[in-house]
Design goal:
By secondary structure, this protein is α/β, with parallel strands linked by helices. β9 and β10 form a beta hairpin.
Length: about 475
């Protein structure tokens, strides 16, 4: 679902510091000198059980509300497949104004601007002068929030520039690709007092929100295990000459062996278990199959001389990971975009009183069901559907409406001055399997410690996606 297409900058450009954005409206110019290398020095790198948590440089952002405002002014960076498809969700909200748009492909920015004008808003400013023009967007003084929908390797640098520029920022999955970068985003959020969120739309799926409320109501008993995945056959799209702006997504399969895209499966299950809100994840052990699917697809579909023939894909076609929590629970994660199979995020939750499994949705709870026969999950809609789904029974937008509900709720929190449903600690936790599953596979499945990005705040109960409807 993170299908964006802006041009892929070089690794050097992605990681260079955003000194030009530092301190805007914040008086934190000293932060502009921090680099990914500095973050690496402070990030955990020791074996599981021995890594020290770096000292907090600011105050926690857990439970910190936005500043209320009558109009939420946003800038959009990345206007490919994902970014362009999300503009309508922002424009559907009368209290949101799209002030600026950014993409190195000018035609895409112009199309986005036309969409904004057609919705009755003033023409947004365009930032199309190269792959780093987002830095200039982030220095604007008339923006409250930056939405990022660009190739994965650029997410960290843009989120960093947004916070240093005094903006709250929401990033499509995954929020960063390196553990050191995750720590730096946590530190920057705490220092700048700006929220940095992983925009995980699957947390707002109707089934996910219903299971979440049922779990919190105790219908599953004591929670024991859950599972989530991104099993989605993307071979045709990754080899398409037009769907992505270049082969950036396919190239990650030449660089990493682990779970490249854990968030859609991990986020909802983490919510069910109150991860970072009463429980926390401790370690991840990952295993991977050989990498055969992309090469076989290339052989069958790509002509001789296509640039993809120079690529060597490394394992794994399917990655399977086991995550442990402080309360002894288990979470299974899967990732497979390289082989033929129907779409599935698995989305399963089990406890001492029963189990839910999705794709297709089915449930078995005591005392409601017996004789080992699955029950009707829709029977629980009236009692347990989240207020967002009751208020927006047929939401517009993509992915069954969960894109719109995610945007609606986030913009509502910004307008009313509420804490966001998830924060930088969730972003870092849900994304940590990207580097750590790769490290575990390289170590023959050895557990890798998942850092406590909250620095102890996970022990305090607080609200999340299972939110109360504002008065």
């Amino acid at each position: 679902m993170d299908d964006q297409t802006p041009r892929t900058p070089s690794r050097r450009k992605v990681l260079r510091t955003t000194a030009g954005a530092a301190g805007t409206g914040l008086g934190i110019g000293a932060l502009s000198g921090r680099t990914a290398q500095a973050a690496t020095e402070s990030a955990p790198s020791a074996p599981p059980g021995s890594a020290a948590v770096p000292k907090r440089r600011g105050a926690t952002m857990a439970g910190v509300p936005f500043e209320g405002r009558s109009t939420v002014r946003i800038g959009i960076v990345g206007l490919g497949n994902r970014g362009a498809s999300m503009i309508g969700n922002f424009l559907a909200l009368p209290w949101v104004r799209v002030v600026a748009v950014c993409d190195p492909v000018r035609e895409k920015a112009e199309r986005a601007a036309s969409t904004v004008v057609a919705a009755g808003q003033p023409a947004p400013a365009l930032y199309t002068h190269g792959e780093e023009d987002y830095e200039n967007l982030c220095t604007r003084t008339d923006l409250d929030f930056v939405y990022v929908a660009t190739p994965w390797e650029t997410h960290f640098a843009i989120a960093r520039a947004a916070m240093l520029g005094g903006k709250h920022v929401g990033v499509e999955c995954p929020v960063a690709m390196e553990l050191a970068d995750l720590w730096e985003l946590v530190d920057l959020s705490e220092q700048t007092r700006r929220h940095c969120m992983q925009l995980e739309n699957c947390c707002y799926g109707r089934n996910e929100m219903r299971v979440l409320r049922m779990a919190h109501a105790g219908r599953f008993g004591e929670l024991l295990h859950g599972a989530g995945a991104y099993n989605h056959d993307l071979r045709g799209l990754m080899f398409s000459p037009t769907y992505y702006e270049g082969p950036w997504r396919r190239l990650w399969h030449t660089r990493r062996r682990g779970d490249l895209y854990p968030n859609h499966g991990f986020g909802p299950v983490a919510n069910y278990m109150d991860v970072n809100r009463g429980d926390r994840v401790l370690s991840i052990s990952s295993f991977g199959t050989p990498a055969l699917g992309l090469a076989e697809y290339r052989a069958a579909n790509m002509p001789p001389g296509d640039p993809s023939w120079k690529e060597t894909y490394i394992e794994s076609d399917r990655t399977i990971s086991m995550v442990t929590t402080a309360k002894g629970r288990l979470i299974r994660l899967e990732h497979d975009v390289s082989t033929p199979h129907p779409y599935s995020r698995i989305n399963s939750l089990g406890g001492t009183r029963g189990v839910f499994e999705d794709y297709p949705a089915r449930i078995y709870l005591e005392p409601d069901h017996k004789d080992d026969v699955w029950g009707d999950f829709s029977a629980y809609a009236a009692e347990f559907d989240h207020w967002l789904w009751k208020e927006h029974a047929n939401p517009p937008g993509g992915h069954g409406g969960m894109d719109y509900l995610m945007v609606f709720r986030l913009m509502q929190c910004l307008q009313l001055g509420l804490p966001p449903d998830f924060d930088v600690y969730d972003a870092a936790t849900w994304t940590a399997p990207v580097p750590l599953s790769h490290a575990s596979i390289k170590a023959n499945g050895a557990p890798q410690e998942i850092p406590d990005f909250t620095r102890g705040e996970w022990q305090k109960a607080r609200t999340g996606v299972d939110s109360a409807k504002p008065a």
